[in-house]
C-alpha cells in the first residue's frame, strides 16, 4: 500500500513539473502570438501526440466496425466517416502548422 502511494505521488510530481515547464516556456513568447492560437510548445508536446492517438483510434474504428458497415449499406457515403475519423485527425497531426489551432 505504501509503495503505491509513493508511486502515485512520484507520478503526479513528475507530471506537475513537466506541465509547469510547458506553461513557463509559452510565457516568454506570449506577446508574439495571437490570443486565439495555441501555444506552440503545448501543441508540439501535448496536442500532436494526442492527435496521433486519435488518428490511430479513428483508423481502427473505421477499419473494423464503421467502414465495412458503411460500405455495405451506403457505399457512396464512405468518405464521410473516413474524413471524420481518419483524415481530419491526420491532417491536424501531420499537415497543420504548429500553434495553428
Note the topology.
Elements: H1 2-28, H2 40-73, H3 79-95
What does this structure look like?
This protein has 101 residues and is mainly α. The chain has helices at 2-28, 40-73, 79-95. Helix 1 (2-28) crosses helix 2.
Main sheet summary: none
Helix and strand run? HHH
Averaged pLDDT: 78
The dominant shape is: flat
Strand content: under 5%
Which stretches are poorly predicted, pLDDT < 50 over at least 5 residues?
Answer: none
Counted beta strands = 0
Percentage of helical residues?
over 70%
Please state the structural category.
mainly alpha
How many helices? The count is 3
Span from first to last CA? 43 Å
Instruction: Supply Rg.
Output: 19 Å
Please give a handful of descriptors for the protein shown.
mainly alpha; 101 residues
Short structural description:
This protein is mainly alpha-helical and 101 residues long. It has three helices and no strands.
Amino acid at each position: 500500500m505504501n509503495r503505491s502511494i509513493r508511486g502515485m505521488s512520484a507520478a503526479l510530481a513528475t507530471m506537475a513539473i513537466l506541465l509547469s515547464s510547458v506553461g513557463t516556456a509559452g510565457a516568454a513568447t506570449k506577446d508574439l502570438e495571437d490570443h486565439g492560437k495555441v501555444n506552440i510548445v503545448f501543441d508540439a508536446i501535448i496536442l500532436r501526440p494526442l492527435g496521433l492517438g486519435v488518428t490511430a483510434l479513428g483508423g481502427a474504428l473505421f477499419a473494423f466496425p464503421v467502414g465495412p458497415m458503411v460500405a455495405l449499406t451506403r457505399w457512396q457515403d464512405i468518405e464521410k466517416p473516413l474524413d471524420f475519423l481518419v483524415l481530419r485527425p491526420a491532417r491536424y497531426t501531420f499537415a497543420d502548422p504548429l500553434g495553428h489551432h
